[in-house]
Structure formats: structure tokens, C-alpha cells
Amino acid sequence: MGIFDKIRGEFVDIVEWIDDTSRTLVWRFPRYHNQIKNGAQLIVRPGQVAIFVRQGQLADTFEPGQYTLTTQNLPVLSTLEGWKHGFDSPFKAEVYFVSTRQITDLKWGTPNPVMLRDADFGPVRLRAFGTYALRALDPKIILTELVGSDGNFSVDELTELVRSIIISSFVDYLGEAKIPALDLASQYREIGDEARDLVCERVDNEYGLEITQLNILNISLPPEVEKAIDQRSSMTAIGDMQQFQQFQMGNAMTAAANNPAGGGAAEGMGMGMGFAMAGQMMNSMAPQSPGVGATPPPPPTGPAFHVTENGQTQGPFNLQQMASAASGGQLTPETMVWCQGMATWSPAGQVPQLTGCFAPSPPPPPPPKA
Fold first, then answer.
1. Phi/psi of residue 9, each to 5°?
2. 87 burial class (0-12, 13-18, 19+ CB within 10 angstroms)?
3. Helix (H, G, I), strand (E, B), or coil: what is residue 98?
4. Rounded distance, CA 268 to CA 87, Å?
């Protein structure tokens, strides 16, 4: 310190803190040999508290306002110094300014996944992150428990401590609340408020701090669990799986019929899928005997037909499947068929067992008389 600083420290004495940062929590007023003049002016701005410390002992505390430092407003320091009828200038004391305003936009998050038990998915690993805000609740506890002799104490020096307490409180609440993983997103606010209360219980009396806000921005599940949830949602949206499969086969048949570049292979594929679909529909429509369970019905009797279209052979198919294919348009009287006992391939319309498949539908009944 230069000679002019020493002179200023002895003859001009205004004790104040002009905070030009947004993250400083405690700041010590710099003074040459900690000397303060008798009658010096103390200015404490809104959002600040000034605390005098003498030889490691906390003395007087000043709320926002302007003060002239005398024995009348320094009773504790006067007792420590043994002043009874005033004092000579200068006197030695350290002055700490503590910021009591909220420090916002602080971030927290789980560095590693947290293991919890879920009612729907069993053991799951969760990640979470969000923001919080804090302020000084008891400046004296902050000085004794956190600051010590640090002349410039910022909130960054507290982040690891506060984050660990937040994560611990967050996990404790989720473990007790047993909220299903699928309902977490709808309860972010409630979870944040409950976790904040648990954090405040652990930091107010011990560290003199208060967590004024605790916000949860996201709680995420592992990618494999999210994929399983998406698949489960898709299955729920589909509904009847058998009807969905029939619908897909019908779309495939339509696409094959409308694709001229597919040639005979495409037509053969469409015919084969049509017969398979007819078989599935017949099976789904067949009545189920009670008590049979998973035992399949006896195999159908009668001739088994093979069908050819553009060199592609499909089959064998029973009479019910052939009739269903004929009603659906996949089997025509010109389609070449063969079954055991036939000498050669013949058009379906010339096979006695199949002629009934192409009989014209009976006319609808006349309208009822009025």
C-alpha cells in the first residue's frame, strides 16, 4: 500500500461495499491494519448486512442504513475493547459485508444415475437436473461455519456442498413418495417443493443458508426404458393385433397388384398372401370350443389344391380357403389349379369341386311392402 493510501486510511473513512458482482456472498472491507477512525461513516446498502469482528470474535451487526461509528452504536465492540468513556481514533476491527439478497440461476444435477424401484418397470436408473436459488439466512453462522478468514467468499465455493444436499434430498423424497416413473413429469413442481423443504432443514441451522427456490427441469429414464415405453404406447394405440396384421396384409396385396414392375413374382406373392389371409380369417371366424385351450382343431378333410399364376405355385389350400379367395377376387375361373387325382393342371372354373365357388350371388330380397 502506498503513502497516499495510508493517509486516506487515516483521515478519510467511509466504510461501504459497492457490489458489482452477482455471485459474491461475503466481502471483507479492506483497511490498512484494520484501522477505522472514530466517527467514521458506515453505509450498509439494501440487501446487505455489516458485521464487525474483533480478534476472531463477532461483535456488532448493522442492518441497511448509514451510521456514525461511536461507542453508542458499537456496544459489543466497546465491551471487548474495554471502552467506558469513548475511545481514541483509530480502533482496529474487521468489517464483513454479507449479501442477503437472492442469488439465482444456480444449477444442480445428478452426476450419475440414481437407482430407484418403480412399480411398472422394476429397478430403474433416473437422471435429473434443474435450477435453484439461495440467500443468506443467518450471516453470523455463515461467517463462523463457512467463511472463516476468507476476504472474498463467492457462492461458487458452495455449489458442490449445496448440490450434494439437493441430490440427497431429491432421492430421499422420491424413495419415500414412490411416484411411478410415468407420473414424474406431471409432478415436477410438487417434487421440487418437497425436496426444497428437506434441503432447508439441512442447511438453515448448520450453514445459515436458505434455499428459496428449487426447480426441476427434467427427470429422464435410460434410453432402453424410454424405447420400451414407446413400444408399449405403440401396442396400445394399435389395439387388436390380429386385425392390424390383416390390415397390413391387405395393404401389401393392394400394393403388389398396383406395381406393374413386380411382374409374375409380385402377382404370385399377392395371391399367396391372399390365400394366407383367407386362412387366417377362416380360423378367426371358426367357433372355439370351451375348455379346449390351446389345442388346435383337427386338420380339414377334402382335396388340397395347388394354384399357379405366371409360373409361381402356391398351396396347398382347402376348399374353404379356395372359396374365400374366389370371393375376394384372388381366385378366378381362369386360374390354373391342380389337386391329387387330376391328370394335369386345369382352369378352376372347369374343376367340379370348385364350380360352386364362382356361382353368382343370389339377388337381394325385395323391399318390404308398406
1. -70, -25
2. middle
3. strand
4. 112
pTM to 2 decimal places? 0.58
Identify whether the C-beta of residue 28 lies closer than 8 Å to the C-beta of residue 50. no
Q: Are 302 and 318 in contact (CB under 8 A)?
A: yes
Domain boundaries, the chain: 3-99, 124-225, 306-350
CB 319 within 8 A of CB 302: yes
Q: Which of 174, 159, 164 lies closest to 112, judged by CA?
A: 164
C-alpha distances in Å from residue 363, one per residue of 85, 329, 366:
126, 19, 9
Q: Which three cell numbers stand for residue 165?
A: 444436499
The answer to whether 29 touches 92, Cβ cutoff 8 Å, is no
- Helix H, strand E, coil C: the string for 166-235 is HHHHHHHHHHHHCCCHHHHHHHHHHHHHHHHHHHHHHHHHHHCEEEEEEEEEEEECCHHHHHHHHHHHHH
How far apart CA 330 and CA 345 sit, in angstroms, is 18
Q: How far is CA 169 from the centre of its chain?
A: 18
Helix pair angle (159-177, 188-207), 10° resolution = 130
Q: CA-to-CA distance for 156 and 106, rounded, in angstroms?
A: 9
Q: Convert the pLDDT of each residue in 229-277 to its tens digit.
A: 777 666 666 666 566 566 666 666 666 666 655 444 444 555 555 555 5
Query: CA–CA separation, 307 vs 364, rounded Å?
Result: 32
What's the pLDDT tens digit per position in 183-207? 888 899 999 999 999 999 999 889 9
What lies within 8 Å, CB to CB, of 129 at 6+ separation is: 107, 108, 109, 110, 217, 218
CATH topology of domain 124-225: Tetrahydropterin Synthase; Chain A (3.30.479)
